[in-house]
Amino acid sequence: MNNIKIKKLQNKKSKSKLICLTAYSKSVSQILDKFCDVILVGDSLANTLYGMRNTHNIDVNTMIKHGISVRQGIKKSLLVIDMPKGSYRTLSIAKKNAKLILKKTKCDAVKIEHNKNNYNIIKGLVSSNINVMGHIGFTPQFKKKFKVEGKTLNQQSRLIKQAQDIEKAGAFSIVLECIDTSLSNKITKILKIPTIGIGSSNNCDGQILVTDDLLGLSGFYPKFVKRYVNLNKIIKKAVSNFKKEVLLKKFPKIKNTY
Ligand code: KIV
Fold first, then answer.
1. From the alpha carbon of 208, which atom of ligand 1 is closest?
2. Per-residue pLDDT at 116
């Protein structure tokens, strides 16, 4: 457990925003590391990288393989790895899988999506010295249809209770995904641990996005995503130039040849 890094991250709450992004490979994590507090190997790699319909079928070994790659690009950021669906269905399964993920990837923490009964799982992992990040609101492992959460009073009190329980269970921070603006503000104020928002307004202590979305690579641009660059367009241009030059025998030149 890297508790110094965790404490440093927690100390930033309400002093400075936490910068968090996803990475699935060393080539990306080594670029992000300079800018980020947290680099997450998200199970979003199921859709983003493997072209799956959702995140439900990605397995622990795939998360580990990408975690090992991402670890190699990181010098200072906190490395968090998503525990995939099914890998924490009971406490003993969760412990076995989290320990394997930590051992193989040398990550600093794992992330678990909220699902009714996982307070005990978080509590159990934390008591085994495993750092856990919680995740509430729209939790893709357990929900089929996208929906903003926390619009009604009922939903609001349920989400506040979930957030408090996750904090009580020992999580060091929590992702708020697609939660109503005023509720994310309330939760951020109530909790001592930092909240990391995605689609949950700038009231949160930090922000996370899927890097491929931010770069304009994924083709997935819901309202909460800002595309900072259109890499698809840039790649298309480069590939089309390559094709042109090969056809015209302009590439490779003598300087590219042995
Ligand atoms: O899987 C993922 O990338 C995530 C973030 C979007 C928070 O869980």
1. 7
2. 78
pLDDT tens across 152-203, in order? 999 999 999 999 999 999 999 999 999 999 999 999 999 999 999 999 999 9
What CATH number does domain 3-227 carry, 3.40.50.300, 2.60.40.1220, 3.20.20.60, 3.30.420.40? 3.20.20.60
CB burial readout 208-231, b (16+ within 10 A) else e? bbbbbbbbbbbeeeeebbebeeee
Sign of CA dihedral 151, 207, 66, 219: positive
Amino acid (1-letter code) at residue 224: F
Residues 197/208, Cβ–Cβ less than 8 Å: yes
Distance from the alpha carbon of residue 251 to the mean position of ligand 1, in angstroms: 40
Structure tokens at 188: 């951020």
128 vs 149: CA distance, rounded Å = 32
The one-letter code for the residue type at 106 is: K
Determine whether the shortest distance from the Cβ of 102 to ligand 1 is under 6 A.
no
User: Using CA atoms, how far apart are residues 142 and 178, in angstroms rounded to an integer?
Assistant: 14
Q: Which atom of ligand 1 is nearest to the CA of 177?
A: 7
The one catalytic residue among 113, 149, 167, 177? 177
Is 245 catalytic? The answer is no
pTM: 0.97
In the block, residue with structure tokens 């099914």:
86
C-alpha to C-alpha distance for 205 and 189, rounded to whole angstroms: 9
**Whose CA is closest to 230, among 251, 250, 214?**
214
Ligand 1 atom 8: the closest Cα is on which residue?
42
What residue ranges do the domains of the chain occupy?
3-227, 231-258
